[in-house]
Amino acid sequence: MTILRALSTAIGRISTFRSYQIVLLLAAALAVVAFYYFGSENQNFSSTTKRIKQASHNANRNDADLSLDTRSFHQEEKTGAELDELKKTNDKESGSKQYHALMMFTKIDRSRSLQNKFQVAMRSMVKHGRFQEDEILVLHFVSDQPSQELGEQMLPELLLDVSFQYEVVFHDVAVLTEKLFPIVEAMQKHFSAGSGAYYSDAIFFLSVAMHRIMPAEMKHVVQLDLDLKYRTNIRDLFQEFNRFSAKAVIGIAYEMQPVYRHTFWQYRKENPKSPVGDPPPEGRPGFNSGVMLLDLEAMQRSTLYNQLLEPDQVARLAEKYHFRGHLGDQDFFTMIGMEHPELFHILGCGWNRQLCTWWREHGYGDVFQLYYRCDGPVYIYHGNCNTPIPND
Asked: Which positions, given as ranges, span the membrane (predicted)?
């Protein structure tokens, strides 16, 4: 009724206005009609468009959106360009900051021991994990099909009490191995136990070349072993990226046994004054890959790091240090760390408190404690070589 009265009054006065005033008046009247029409039921153009987009988005999804429901189990089986596009879409829509954590999850279905370790790791991560409202922890699992199916069964229960937003992404181990093999093939003969051995598979060099095969949206990744127990908020581990020096591309802790004192024995014999293989703080004991921070952007930018991936450079350093290892990526990082320590940010031992004592009883008891000692708080226990992890 208000609109009709306004129009009636306007028409009654039309004869008194000039033509341009008539046009302005009619435009104003139409604007009033449009406002009331589109504004009915508390809707406007922006909110209506947003609802249509959201409805379309939800109609094309086959699973829950964990940015809205932190208790839901969200699975995406995408890699490469598909995952890249997915991350771009999620970031634009949610405005959330993502923290990426990756774990190797192969052959889990065959091992009760690995299943138990995984349960300890996930329950302790959930117990201590705290993130802000606009942050999401993205859990990446590199898996074969049987292990993925088992993981899909286990994770909803393990993540039931989570207090933060999360997503779960499974990566096909066969797909990633195919991408990795041309890059790391030359490394395997230097850092693998032999044909058919556990670390002879290309996938165990994933961290070495992750910057070349993962989506560009994944700028920082924390790679974690399954045999860990968290005693603090995993979000705090990601803050170590802020402490990287300008040349550092990887954050990693020292090996806490005299493994590389043994591996570099010939080089040490020929170079008795070298710090290679010596214990910290003055020595270079080598690295342990149970907890690693990978700055994928920095890895992409670093000319030096990418040169070290070339087969001739790998062979040159392996010959120089008389290096023959069997621990995959850990061996590679250790070897190039002897030559170029500036590429690495050293994590405190508390972020990867290794518990294995195998080398203490195998020829190195006299120096073992120099490597094994770890002062200060423990943030993550690492039960390597099947060592029991202490209870809280």
From this structure: 20-39
What digits encode the pLDDT tens for the residues 260-269? 999 999 999 9
Q: Classify residue 68 by its DSSP letter.
A: T
Q: Which CATH topology does 75-386 take?
A: Spore Coat Polysaccharide Biosynthesis Protein SpsA; Chain A (3.90.550)
- The pLDDT value recorded for residue 189 is 85
Q: Model confidence over 314-346: pLDDT tens digits?
A: 999 999 999 999 899 999 999 999 999 999 999
Q: Rounded CA gap, 386 and 367, in Å? A: 22
The set of residues, in sequence order, having a beta carbon less than 8 Å from that of 355 and lying 6+ positions away, is 381, 382, 383, 384, 387, 388, 389
Average the pLDDT over each of 17-21, 192-196, 351-355 and give the range with the smallest value. Answer: 17-21
* List of E strands, the chain: 75-76, 97-105, 135-143, 165-172, 220-224, 228-230, 250-254, 287-295, 344-346, 353-354, 380-382
- Beta bridge partners, 103, equal 141, 224
Task: Give domain limits for the chain.
Answer: 1-60, 75-386
pLDDT tens readout for residues 191-203: 887 654 444 479 9
Nearest alpha carbon to residue 138 among 161, 170, 106:
170
174: helix, coil or strand?
Answer: helix
The CA-atom distances, in angstroms, between 116 and each of 121, 125, 261, 325 are: 9, 14, 32, 28
Asked whether 67 and 76 are in contact (CB, 8 A), the reply is no
Q: How do beta strands 344-346 and 228-230 pair? A: unpaired
